[in-house]
Write a structure and sequence with these properties.
Blueprint (H helix, E strand, L loop, with lengths): L2 H4 L18 H10 L5 H22 L4 E3 L7 H8 L5 H9 L1 H10 L9 E3 L6 E3 L2 E2 L10 H12 L4 E6 L1 H7 L1 E2 L13 H17 L4 E5 L9 H16 L5 E5 L8 H7 L4 E5 L7 H7 L3 E11 L9 H12 L2 E8 L18 H4 L5 H17 L5 H15 L7 H8 L12 H12 L16 H12 L4 H22 L16 H4 L3 E4 L6 E4 L2 E3 L3 E7 L6 H9 L6 E5 L1 H6 L2 E2 L5 H21 L4 E5 L14 H16 L7 E6 L8 H6 L4 E4 L7 H8 L5 E4 L12 H14 L18 H19 L3
Parallel strand pairs: 1-5, 4-6, 5-7, 7-8, 8-9, 9-10, 10-11, 15-17, 16-18, 18-19, 19-20, 20-21
Antiparallel strand pairs: 2-3, 12-15, 13-14
Helix pairs in contact: 2-3, 5-6, 9-10, 10-11, 13-15, 17-24, 19-20, 24-25, 27-28, 28-29
This protein binds glutamine (GLN) and zinc ion.
Zinc ion binds next to loops.
Length: about 775
Amino acid sequence: MTSKSAAAAARATVYGYPRQGPDRELKKAVEGYWKRRVGADALRDTARDLRRANWRRLAEAGVDEVPTGDFSYYDHVLDTSVMVGAIPDRHRTAVETDTLDGYFAMARGTQDVAPLEMTKWFDTNYHYLVPELGPDTVFTADSGKQVAELTEALALGLTARPVLVGPVTYLLLAKPAPGVDADFEPLALLERLLPVYAEVLADLRAAGAQWVQLDEPALVQDRTPAELDAAARAYGALGSLTDRPKVLVASYFDRLGEALPVLAKAPVEGLGLDFTGPAAANLDGLAAVGGLPGKRLVAGVVDGRNIWINDYEKSLATLGTLLGLAGTVDVAPSCSLLHVPLDATAERDIDPQIARWLAFAHQKTAETVTLARGLSGGTGAIAAELAANRADLASRAGSALTHDPAVRARTSTVTEADGRRSQPYGERAPAQRARLRLPLLPTTTIGSFPQTTEVRTARADLRAGRVDTEGYEERIKAEIREVIAFQEKAGIDVLVHGEAERNDMVQYFAEQLTGYLATQHGWVQSYGTRYVRPPVLAGDISRPKPMTVRWTAYAQSLTDRPVKGMLTGPVTMLAWSFVRDDQPLAQTARQVALALRDEVDDLEAAGTSVIQVDEPALRETLPLRAADRAAYLDWATESFRLTTAGVRPDTQIHTHMCYAEFGDILQAIDDLDADVISLEAARSHMRVADELAAAGYPREVGPGVYDIHSPRVPSAEEAAALLRKGLAAIAPERLWVNPDCGLKTRGWTETRQSLENLVEAARTVRTQV
Ligand code: GLN
Ligand code: ZN
């Protein structure tokens, strides 16, 4: 591509890049700063070097326009709050005293003030800090960070496009500040916010921005007419400004739907649309509005959230169709590459043949550039890349990893009956009662006990070869003995083995299932300086041998009380992994379910009378658009039932979920057909119990009475009061007593006291029903 034809040619761009650096340098610098081991200047230098390295790499890879402002010390939504001056009153002094420390105070809190609340960024595993707004919020523009980063990139001689969270999404992500009426709608502040954006846009133009990108992912969700109208007003107003760069409104994670005509009509110069997964419906949407004549379309054809190579032919076909539908068509990943790891070539432990199927941020960048070249110059311009891509896709499709005949044969013969218990709940419950002989209001825990330094050290020692498997297992057994002894002494009714052997509730199983791969460097930001390394569900899933049975059996050998078997459910196994994209999720879930079903059956055969299958992710993978939810919940609940339905009627199946907001999946919870469900409830004052009761949920429920998210020890009176609230909604025969979630992040001292109080509360309330 010569520089002359480049002006008319398709450009390659990205919306954002992983911030951490190849060796997670940012994490180290930020955490070092918190510990006062790294000075503010050193932190700033590290950050600047990382930004520059990213831009240089993007430019060298052939990206025509690099993003700026997507970098963050902690979170880009928090950065937006700073940009618009939405600093909560309780953090003002800190921010005024020291910008950086104030910033981190908002993110993490201090001894004296609570941080902003954190929540999931749409349906990703990234978490942002929720803006707190109210009728008294006064916005003020602070374009400093945006201007500085743009200036840095321009100084490198690059074409750069600042990326900002758009005003509509920003307000839709916000919540009423503490003390503000819960009915307050932050979107009511739009007219107050727009002048601040206008000021920032003017500053960016003055600093040399040709284009600016405003991200509006909230517009891919179902939106009310009033919200769509707000979007029309926002972009009508911003578009009419004279002193501004050209505006690209970017959307991602799903289709724009009814927001597409709104944005297509707005007086802005460009639109970014996602064309992957369910967002492929944008293609029809675009045709329906008559395209974007004269405008710039940025086409997200490279999946920015998953780690598989692109299908070039398919993408080029999409891009070819789009050519007729806009003034110019540029190519991009579907969303910021923040959600994928940095570099697949760093994965030296993965079979090189298989590693060729992987595309992390660097590889996705190269794919984007290749597709832009293919779009401009025709397939001849990328003949070699196309051939290699075809070969890699063929190797993936024909591989024994992705196509295991035994797994395929088994999944294809699954019937509806396989997902149905042999008796309905009403008949199972008395059988379980007779077998388990539990008191009223039985006490239990969610599974994990504190992960002590000893356990973590033992695991590190095993990995480093400092201890052999036998020595490691002895360590785990000692831990199990301690956990069982404590629970017996405390008087808990249904015991657990404590999950000491698990590094993580998904990774532990992924490591033992055939079809999963582990990465060495596949870190993605979960929030702030927290990174996770999701396993890769790459192939057909099978279970070569039992995964948990010996630990549960060992624990059971130490006590006469029932020990609960503990597994991670199929939906969560998918949600917290990178999942193969070459077959429907339903199919993958079914394979995982069958593998887990074998484990459930083996646990039962080993004498386990209570088995818990955790599904904390059931709600978080709920599709963004309501229209897609029924199909999702259908396969999600089916896979849970397939996992659990093979057991005898008198074996009790528990499930667990970690959140208090689940009004929209009540029916799905019932469809799981679990005998007992435990949920988070302590902070929401047992509201879930009321909701389940109101929905007529017929089974047993354990609404948490101990908030495990804080080291605070609840008193017995407090737990008893919560239990009484639970009893107001749920009959005593159906109410369980348990904490909100697992105890692995807690210390032993507070855990001991809290569980003793929990048992005392159950005993007290039992005498009163
Ligand atoms: N059984 C798991 C534990 O106790 C459940 C964790 C979760 O729900 N996230 O740790
Ligand atoms: Zn939980």
